[in-house]
Design a protein that fits this description.
Blueprint lengths: L1 E8 L7 H16 L5 E8 L4 E8 L2 H17 L9 E6 L14
Antiparallel strand pairs: 1-3, 1-4, 2-3
Length: 105
């Protein structure tokens, strides 16, 4: 399994962190789930707008192929970020995620 880590900073003068997460869940996530090899994502935020999106992919090729989709989505939503998000790709060496019931804050 491979992952893509996107580090970002939301411009909280333009959009609330909660609204930015809702935008991700309603507009980006459904399209992300359609990408070949997609296996899930985790979104992390702080109240001051810092955040990370960790997406998981079946293969390295799937993770690399998702780059074009991710770039298009970031460009489409460029106005909500303080600066351009950074992205890196990793191989998942180990994971032990707790089951979390996710709700909209």
């Amino acid at each position: 399994m491979f992952s893509r880590l996107t580090l970002l900073e939301i411009d909280t003068m333009r959009i609330d962190v909660t609204d930015a997460v809702a935008l991700f869940r309603m507009q980006v996530l459904p399209q992300l789930q359609l990408q070949p090899g997609y296996e899930g994502a985790t979104v992390l935020t702080t109240p001051d707008g810092k955040g990370a999106i960790l997406s998981f992919w079946a293969t390295e090729a799937d993770a690399q192929a998702s780059h074009q989709f991710a770039t298009a989505e970031l460009e489409r939503n460029v106005t909500i970020f303080r600066e351009a998000p950074g992205r890196e790709q990793y191989e998942v060496a180990y994971s032990d995620f707790p089951r979390v019931e996710v709700g909209i804050r």
